[in-house]
Specification:
3 helices; 138 residues; mainly alpha; elongated
Amino acid sequence: MVGLSLQANDDDGAKHAIRRLFELQQQRVLTFNEFEIKFKEYLLDAPKFQLERLKLICKQIGDAFNEINRQIIEQVLNYLKETTAAAANDNASLIKLVESIQENEEVKFKLVMLIRKNSLHTTKRITAINIEIFLYIL
């Protein structure tokens, strides 16, 4: 009977941990969407881009991602402390899944930053060309 109650507690803990990880992943998606909005707003300043503003946006978003990552790691560690040895295989799978998500999110963010950097350079070039055309017409 004791084994059954331990199993139920492990299942409840796993459900809670997974639910919390999904919540944190949703926060990460919302933070990423916030970055997209702020970056698009930043582009509206063309051709007078303020590098300090972009740095602040990146710092705010980076800090938010770091906090989410810290909470994810904390959640996994708390779950591991609460589980029994019988759940060791499940724990290893959960850890691998979380690590994979973390790595993929980091790669995604770096790629988006590279794309945004390239689009920023393109926007600057297009704006410069438009100004030259405008001046030529005058």
